[in-house]
Structures are given as C-alpha cells and as structure tokens.
Amino acid sequence: MDDLKSKNLSSYSDRVIKDNIRPLWDVLSTLVTPEPKSCCEATLWRYDTVRPLLIEAGNLLTAKEAERRVLILENPGIPGESKITTSLYAGIQLVLPGEIAPAHKHSQSAFRFVLEGKKGAYTAVNGEKSYMEVGDLILTPSGTWHDHGNEGDGPVLWLDGLDIPIVQFFDASFMEHHSEDEHPHTKGDGDSMARYGSGMLPIDYEAEVPTSPVMKYPYSRTRKILFKMKETNEWDPCHGLKLMYVNPSDGKSAMPTLGAFMQLLPSGFETASYRSTDATVYSVVEGTGQTKIGNKTFEWGPKDTFVVPSWHYHHHIANSECVLFSYSDRPVQKVLGLWREDRGNR
Ligand code: 1HN
Q1: How far apart are CA 240 and CA 245, in angstroms?
Q2: Which of 64, 69, 70 is the pocket-test mutation for ligand 1 (most atoms within 8 Å of CB)?
Q3: Region of 251 on the Ramachandran plot (φ > 0 left; ψ -120 to 50 alpha; else beta)
Q4: Could you tell which of 125, 144, 145, 160 is best to mutate to test the pocket of ligand 1, judged by most ligand atoms within 8 Å of the CB?
C-alpha cells in the first residue's frame, strides 16, 4: 500500500472512532486468530511462598474482618484482573481455629480444594456442614448460602476456584449477606452424599439446577478409586489415569462452569505432549514432578499450584507416584461447541 493511501486510511480510522465506530479491517486479525493466542502466562505458585504470607495476613485481620481471608493467584499476563486464566479465578484461603467466615451467597459458582488442616474445619452449604480433609473437593454452587468455620486446633488452608470472570463477562453478578454469621446448620456431614452420591436417588428427585446435589467429594474415596483403577495398568499416554468430578444425577460435570479432575501418574511416567483449548489450573496433591509448558519447565511438589494456558503444548514428568487435581472451564466450552484438544506430538 502506498504512503498516501495508508495515511488516508489512518486519518479515516481516527475520524470514525470519534463516533464510536471502528473499521473492522483495522482489528480483524486480532479479533479472529487462526488459533488461540492467550495473554495468560504459564506460571507456578509455590505453597512455600503463599502459606507464610497467609499466616502473616492471619495476624493482621480476622476471617470476619476480611469476609474471606484469601490471597488471589493472579496471572502475570493479565495483571490487576484477579484472574488465573481469562475465564477463571483462583485463591488460597486461610481460616484459623475459632474463626467464622460469615454466610453469604452469590451467582458465582465455587469449589474448595483442601490443602492443609486437621479435621475440624468445615464449609456449610445451605445448612449442610462438610468437614474438610486434605484433598477433599467441596462445592458451593451458584446461589447457595455458605459459611466456613474451624472447630479444630490448627489452621486450615484451601484453594478456592471460582468462575468470577465468566460471571463478570455476562454482567450477571448478584450477592447477598446472611443476617447471621452462620446460616442455620440443619444437616450434618455426608447428608448430600448419602442421598445423591451413593448410586441411588430419592425417587422423586428432579434437578432444579445444572449442578451436583453432592456437596463433598472426599479424597479418601477419590484416592481409593484411582488406586483400584491403577491395578489394571491401563494408562492414557497424555493423562495417565484421569477422572472427572461429576454430578451423579446426570453424569455431567459437577458444576456447569467449572470442570474438575483428578489424575494419577505412576512413578517415572512421562505424559505425551498435549494441548487443549481449556486453560487448566493444577494443584499437586501427592508426589513431585515437572511440567514442561512450551519452553518453560516448572518443578512442583505437594500443594503447589500451576496453570497451563489455552492451547499450549505441555507434558508432565512424574518423579514419584503423583496425584494431581485440576480444574478448567471445559464444561462451558463443551456446551458451546468450542472445546478442542490436540493429542499430537511436539
Ligand atoms: C467467596 O465467596 C469465597 O466463600 C472465596 O470462601 C473467595 C472470591 C470472590 C468472591 C467470593 C468463599 C471469593 C468469594
């Protein structure tokens, strides 16, 4: 294009922008890319870095003063947005003995993935108390009242996963505080598991929401499943042995916006190179290893968190027998027909 033409086009663009109009030809190639071009960066947060900072915050303010005493894991490629990926939020929360994080409800769906703590801490969801043990997954579905407490004698820390950026994208956020710090605890630990998660359902059960009626997926159970399946020695080259947390009433993802997974990699296993369109957040449960993401290598151990951006080739190397929890926006992408994976080698 000659200089004069280019100058005329540029002044044309400057002029129309004043009327809130933008020529598509200026932006088309950034709007519609031939493949995902994520601004999100592969990053790892060591538990050894985050934990002391949270304990320090524990001396500065109470859970009640903070409402939620959380350190957000912020993706360095999207600074200031409280996002770990373009669609997901992650944070690490601390509740000290005797504290209550007061009851509230909001449109955002959330889960807690327990990192540390002896039994005694709980999340209560719509009156059902779920006591927390390391590796447990506890759901707080959209619109459910939830409060946290700690009746034990040590700190409890967990990873919070929320769909905040998705709700923000739709401008669909509502929140309410309960009149009391604690919603009445009318049901005990395991109530929803007994009713809905044991291979039976109440005869007239009809789902009113697209979310699992089971509030806690205990690690003791998840681990048993993984190690039972391990006996057949059938490994997926890309995933080792990988399970998805499901809604037992329909077999779909436990929550509509948050897909959650648990996988086992035997000692010495190196997964085949893999990429998918759902950026994925990992929390290491057991073992040590490495994940190579593009040209970066991340060494990890228990309770570390790392994120693999969308459409980035990566593979894991297990130095010992490893159990990895992960979550992503896969159920949203699947329902929209957007999800893709590439099990290719590179
Ligand atoms: C929330 O409700 C919790 O209930 C944790 O523990 C983190 C981040 C943003 C908005 C709501 C919780 C949150 C949150």
Answers
A1: 16
A2: 70
A3: left
A4: 160
For the 43-342 domain, the top CATH level (class) is: mainly beta
Confidence of residue 1 (pLDDT cuts 50, 70, 90): confident
Taking the whole predicted model, whether its pTM rises above 0.90 is answered as yes
pLDDT digits (tens, 9 = 90+) for 170-229: 999 999 999 999 999 999 999 999 999 999 999 999 999 999 999 999 999 999 999 999
Domain boundaries, the chain: 43-342
DSSP type of residue 240: B
Atom 13 of ligand 1 has which residue's CA nearest to it? 68
68: CA distance to ligand 1 center in Å? Answer: 6
Structure tokens at 183: 């919603």
pLDDT tens-place string over residues 100-127: 999 999 999 999 999 999 989 999 999 9
DSSP-derived 3-state class of residue 335: helix
Q: What DSSP string describes 138-188?
A: EEE-TT--EEEEE-SSS-EEEEEEE-HHHHHHTT---EEE-SSSS----B-
- Tell me how far apart the alpha carbons of residues 174 and 40 are, in angstroms, rounded to a whole number: 27
The H or E element that residue 340 is part of is none
Q: What are the counts of helices (DSSP H) followed by strands (DSSP E) for the chain?
A: 8, 22
* Contacts with 223 (C-beta within 8 Å, 6 or more apart), sequence order: 135, 323
Q: What value does the mean pLDDT take over residues 301-316? A: 98
Report pLDDT for 108. 98
With cut-offs at 50, 70 and 90, classify the pLDDT of residue 345.
low
Which residues neighbour 30 within 8 Å (Cβ) at sequence distance 6 or greater? none
132 neighbors 220 (Cβ within 8 angstroms): no
Verify whether ligand 1 is closer than 6 Å to residue 167 (CB atom). no
Q: Ligand 1 centre and the CA of 214: distance in Å?
A: 19
What span, in angstroms and rounded, lies between the C-alpha atoms of 41 and 77? 5
